[in-house]
Amino acid sequence: MKFKNFPMVPRVIFGRGCFSQLQEILMPRRKNSEAPFIFLVDDVFESNQELISKIPLLFGDKIIFIPTDEEPKTEQVDVLVSKIREYTTQSPSGIVGIGGGTVMDLAKAVAIMLTSNGKAEEYQGWDLVTREAIYHVGIPTISGTGAEVSRTTVLTGPEKKLGINSDFTPFDQVVLDPELTNGVPRDQWFYTGMDCYIHCVESLNGTYLNAFSQSYGEKAEDLCDEVFYNGKLSKEETQDKLMMASWHGGMSIAYSQVGVAHAMSYGLSYLLGTKHGLGNCIVFNHLEEFYPEGVAKFKKMQERHEIELPKGLCANLSEEEFETMINVSMGMDPLWENAVGKNWKDTITRVKLRNLYEKM
Ligand code: NAD
Ligand code: ZN
User: Fold this and answer.
1) For ligand 1, is residue 276 a contact (CB within 6 Å)?
2) What mean pLDDT is predicted for residues 127-136?
3) Which of 91, 129, 199, 242 is 20 to 30 Å from 150 at the Cα level?
4) Where in the numbering of this chain does the Fe-containing alcohol dehydrogenase-like C-terminal domain appear (predicted)?
5) Distance (Å, rounded) from C-alpha 124 to C-alpha 105?
6) Structural domain tally of the chain?
7) Substitution candidate for ligand 1 out of 73, 139, 169, 188 with most atoms within 8 A of CB
8) Same-domain check for residues 133 and 281
9) Same domain, 341 and 221
10) Residue 111 sits in the same domain as residue 201
11) Mean predicted lDDT score pLDDT of the chain
12) Among 142, 165, 181, where does a domain finish?
């Protein structure tokens, strides 16, 4: 048996208001006055002067606002990289991503592609990156994906939706300031939060589970219970705990894998552009067969927070479209193997997936 030896985020700061320490965090990382920091910021903050004024701009630093109505694409990474190369003759001092999973994943991918040749799509897969990325910092403004701590950046390319999984992907620094999650819309709070809950359920019920993953997964699940299920917390406690749940959920899947909800939600996302958190919720809602307790609790949480999931997503799809979704989903071998075991192909058939998709 060969064990994975994976890197972790080497520096993390946690605390309400700690975002205002960004200046002192970045200062020692400035190479010189010609090498700027590039801040990729979710465009939801474009008119948020309170946040923007705290970004410690110096010399030729630049803010690039990122629209987040669509999830990151390899082409978008390539465009950002050329834009940054045109902007500065020197390699930047670093890339800082401020936003949710979408912006954090873009920041990781841009940092990698600034030192790697070719196009981002060439690096989708496992351990294809061979050069150190430039210094990159992740600052989540919504909690749940675990992108702040993970070894991947999920991108949709011309041929596939797949992460750049590499030792150079994790952030060099993460800033966890729960106050930044003020203002997250309630539905989105639930969908992205449930991404974390689903990471826990899939990791804890998977065949890849070991004590390392379990220790993080159980902690994350307890925190999700406090936030979404038991619900006696103040707003501040809710924000603090969900931010740490996201972290632990991400750590839990580092050494295991996600499962059925993710494998099927990738199909929805590839074909219909359904966003990650929402897609996972739509799929997970129909997975009693695989995760009976997890799904029962999920339904209660949904009720409690009065969340209505969209229905009929697959009602008018053509044969060909169903085939595409099923192909994408069945292509996620490690996820199915984790969920069902080495012989997953015996029970996970195209007909089975078709029946499940038809319910969504
Ligand atoms: P997101 O980043 O797309 O953000 C969702 C919405 O919330 C956006 O409209 C955004 O503008 C808004 N938002 C974020 N912070 C806000 C704030 N403080 N106030 C108001 N609005 C705010 O959503 P997400 O669920 O965080 O991320 C989904 C992405 O993460 C997907 O692309 C998915 O593939 C990726 N992902 C990556 C990993 C990983 O390990 N790399 C893991 C899971 C998911
Ligand atoms: Zn996820």
Assistant:
1) yes
2) 97
3) 91
4) 191-303
5) 13
6) 2
7) 188
8) no
9) yes
10) no
11) 96
12) 181
How confident is the model over 169-191, as a mean pLDDT?
Answer: 98
Residue range(s) defining the domain that contains residue 104 = 11-181
172 shares its domain with 197: no
147 lines ligand 1 (CB under 6 A): yes
Query: CA-to-CA distance for 78 and 12, rounded, in angstroms?
Result: 28
CATH of the domain at 326: 1.20.1090.10
Which strands form 125-126's sheet, in the order they lie side by side? 125-126, 161-165, 154-156
pLDDT band at 4 (very low <50, low <70, confident <90, very high): confident
**Does 254 have pLDDT greater than 80?**
yes
Is the distance from the beta carbon of residue 152 to the nearest atom of ligand 1 less than 6 Å? yes
> What ipTM was estimated for this complex?
0.99
Distance between Cα 199 and ligand 2 center (Å): 6
* Distance in Å, CA 59 to ligand 2 centroid: 37
Instruction: For 41, list phi and psi in degrees, rounded to 5.
Output: -125, 130
273 lines ligand 1 (CB under 6 A): no
User: Is 80 exceeded by the pLDDT of residue 343?
Assistant: yes
Ligand 1 lined by 150 (C-beta under 6 Å): yes
For the cut 90, the answer to whether the pLDDT of residue 159 exceeds it is: no
102 lines ligand 1 (CB under 6 A): yes
The one-letter amino acid code at 228 reads F
Judge if 219 and 250 occupy the same domain: yes
Quote the ligand 1 centre to 99 CA distance (angstroms): 7
pLDDT recorded at residue 1: 79
Mean pLDDT across 269-294:
97
Ligand 1 touching residue 100 (CB < 6 A): yes
Question: Ligand 1 center to residue 352 CA distance, Å?
Answer: 30
Cβ–ligand 1 distance for 73 under 6 Å, the answer no
Give pLDDT, residue 307: 97
> 125 with 260, same domain?
no
Name the nearest CA neighbour of 114 among 95, 137, 140: 95
Q: How far is CA 296 from CA 201, 230, 276, 302, 340, in A?
A: 12, 15, 21, 10, 20
Assess whether pLDDT exceeds 90 at residue 160. no
Nearest CA owner, ligand 1 atom 21: 184
